[in-house]
Amino acid sequence: MPRAKVAILRTSPATVRSDYHELLNLAEYQQTIARDADTALKVNISWHFFFPASSTTPWQLDGVIAAMLADGYDKNLIHACHNRTVVIDSHLGERENKQLDVVEKYGLRNIHLYEGEEWIGIKEAVGDLTKKFLCLNEVYPKGFSIPRRFLGENIIHLPTVKTHVFTTTTGAMKNAFGGLLNEHRHWTHPVINETLVDLLMIQKQIHRGVFAVMDGTFAGDGPGPRCMLPHVKNVILASADQVAIDAVAARLMGFDPLADCRYIRLAHDAGLGCGDPREIEIVGDADAAREDWNFVGPYKKMTFASQMQHKIYWGGLKRPIEWSLKTWLAPWAYVASVLYHDLYWYPARSRKMMDLALRSDWGRLFQNWGRVEENEQGFQNVGQHHPEFQRNLSAMLKQGAKVLGTCLLKAPEIDRRKQKTEPLKDS
């Protein structure tokens, strides 16, 4: 007997809105997402610049909101939800990825968790559940905080199908990483797989309902979640089981979820969901679920940055360097990341890597988002490809320099102003 259910459909711009509506109901989301509770749509921004497969797509966010409203959910109880990291500007990201356009179109609240939101100590939030953590008590011996507003809320995660240099693949489970942990979340990187299991335990206790809707219209292979090779795959997935949807996505990419993705294996063994594809019921397009994309994965052609990260967290640089990431010296790593990704890789490499994706139907829909006609089914005419859509080199460098400045100003080790969003110490 199946232990979990995952819905999957093939889609196209012309039918994407109705497909998302069908997808959510195939996965029986109304049994998980309570109507009388606030629902956070947890947007994924893996890069504040647009890069196919890296972040929540506008049609993904639009499709979920349209489906919920069509099914009678109260617009006033739905909001977009964003986290911040030391190297990602969420405000820039929601504009560049056109997520803000969707939120404003529907008139929803748009909540940035690090701006005016109260965070509470983890022991106050989950009590004795902390005794079951695999690693977070050791990473944060003085405790850590989570957003108070999450207690009793529904949450719908909006990840994309892609690989990741720390966890092989990333999806629903890792989408909680930014929302539940503070800006010192990089402290968990050496034990990232165990961390994702602890975070899923927390979610299951604090949220009224947990659901995930994953976009695979673009899918990313290589050293993700940023510097990837994007592919057009035309699939969308949904499930109330965070482990199962990640397992199905991993299998699509060509991985054995239980053998190749440690976080899925750990969560499966802990009974937090089903990571065994043989025990997952597929509803919708079963043929789509049987595809094997044969992705090479994140480790065969790693970027210089990802190679250094692996050496610092698990290799020969761990002893001489990792300690500095937990001190006032940590901003060197944030600066290095922005310099590499935003001021080198994106200006030098992204244009070539994105070209085919931008010429696809989905790429043209993204370029023309907000200017093409839509109906209940989707977008019948996606418009033309605009070569000028991609910034020129000087514009990219200018934007990257702004991000670098923001990164330094917002670094928690530099910004010592007391805020409600600072991690609280548990007594």
Keywords:
427 residues; alpha/beta; 10-stranded mixed sheet; disordered C terminus
Question: What's the Cα radius of gyration?
Answer: 20 Å
Please provide the count of β strands.
Answer: 12
Secondary-structure class? alpha/beta
SSE order, one letter for each helix or strand: EHEHEHHEEHHEEEEHHEEHHHEHHHHHH
Mean pLDDT: 93
Which geometry do the CA atoms define?
Answer: globular
What percent of residues adopt helix (DSSP H or I)? 25-40%
Query: Can you summarize the main beta sheet?
Result: 10 strands, mixed
Give the amount of beta strand, in percent.
15-25%
Detail the poorly predicted runs.
Answer: 417-427
Report how far the terminal alpha carbons are from each other: 45 Å
Count of DSSP helices? 17
Q: How does this model look, in words?
A:
- With 427 residues, the chain is α/β, with parallel strands linked by helices.
- The chain has 17 helices and 12 strands.
- The strands form 2 sheets. Strands 1, 2, 3, 4, 7, 8, 9, 10, 11 and 12 form a 10-stranded mixed β-sheet that branches. It has a two-stranded antiparallel ribbon with strand order 5-6.
- Strand 2 (39-43), helix 2 and strand 3 form a beta-alpha-beta unit.
- Helix 1 packs across helix 2 (58-70), helix 8 (192-206) crosses helix 11 and helix 15 (331-359) packs antiparallel against helix 17.
- It is globular, with a radius of gyration of 20 Å.
- The model is unreliable at 417-427 (pLDDT under 50).
